[in-house]
Design goal:
This protein has 288 residues and is mostly beta strands. It has three helices and 14 strands. The protein folds into two domains: 48 residues, no CATH class; 234 residues, Porin. Helices cover 14% and strands 58% of the residues. The chain has a twelve-stranded antiparallel β-barrel. It starts with a helix and ends with a strand.
């Protein structure tokens, strides 16, 4: 198949070269193709041109409620997250995103810049790995315990039809206190409708968040009584289930989702309630 594709490409290249003055003999074209076949470097560049592309992905997501690690903070507010992502077929990507909270002051909380690299490999390209570096720029830098950014690595696998997959990722947060998080995501990609211009699919996802959390620790002493100190404790933080429905047409994607949080008690936390929210998203793919 590759040989046939190569000859077709070379044929069309030959047609364009000789379009202004067609060769008088068929042997001239055959000789030209033979010369190209002997030039390995030129062939590599030609084949690379068919897979060397890049694009921008613009997205805007609205969440009906705001929870942190699945926990209710007793503030009724929505949030909006715009993002612009550059991606290259070689595996490089970069993005800038932010988040707006309806009730916080300032409302624009943080801007995040990310650079990374990811690649699929193995038979049928079912395996994938990625690594990224992110930096945070806060609107209000007077908050204690802010992190400067994080370093993330991830490893995933999906089936040949791209309908089921799982990703395991880890992030180390850069700041005054060491913190890290491990996330396991299992997802499905089920097509409900597929035509030439319209696609409708559901993409359920189960995410399990574990990591370090700062908690108050109560210790008893005979002379001073009870003393409260803070320790970093590693454990299960939150389990989240997402039910998004995505409709695609041309370069646009529209998403409507329902999300459930099942936060886990850490340290002195008790009686945590499950939380839920809706999300609406729109995105556009711009081919460069």
């Amino acid at each position: 198949m590759k040989t046939i594709l190569l000859y077709l490409c070379l044929f069309f290249c030959s047609v364009s070269v000789f379009s202004q003055e067609p060769p008088s003999k068929k042997t001239d074209i055959d000789k030209y193709i033979d010369e190209l076949l002997l030039e390995e470097q030129s062939l590599d560049e030609l084949l690379a041109s068919f897979i060397n592309f890049h694009f921008l992905y613009l997205s805007l997501n609205y969440n009906s409620d705001t929870y942190f690690s699945g926990r209710d903070i007793d503030i009724d507010q929505y949030n909006i997250s715009p993002q612009i992502t550059y991606m290259h077929s070689k595996g490089f990507y970069a993005s800038v995103s932010g988040i707006y909270y309806s009730e916080f002051i300032p409302k624009w909380d943080v801007t995040t810049a990310t650079i990374g690299y990811g690649k699929s490999f193995g038979k049928d390209k079912i395996w994938r790995y990625y690594t990224s570096l992110s930096g945070y720029l806060y609107s209000d830098n007077n908050i204690d315990g802010l992190y400067n950014g994080n370093i993330s690595v991830g490893f995933g696998i999906q089936n040949k039809n791209r309908t089921l997959g799982s990703v395991l990722s880890g992030s180390y947060y850069l700041g005054s206190d060491a913190a890290y998080q491990i996330v396991s995501r299992t997802y499905a990609n089920l097509k409900l409708l597929k035509t030439k211009k319209h696609h409708l699919k559901i993409r359920p996802q189960l995410s399990i968040f574990t990591g370090t959390q700062v908690v108050d620790v109560l210790s008893d002493t005979t002379l001073q009584g009870s003393v409260i100190s803070q320790n970093n404790v590693f454990g299960l933080i939150n389990t989240q289930i997402n039910f998004p429905i995505q409709y695609s047409t041309n370069s646009f994607d529209f998403e409507l989702g329902y999300n459930l949080n099942f936060p886990s008690e850490i340290g002195t936390e008790t009686d945590l309630k499950n939380t839920s929210f809706f999300n609406i998203g729109i995105s556009y793919l711009l081919d460069l």
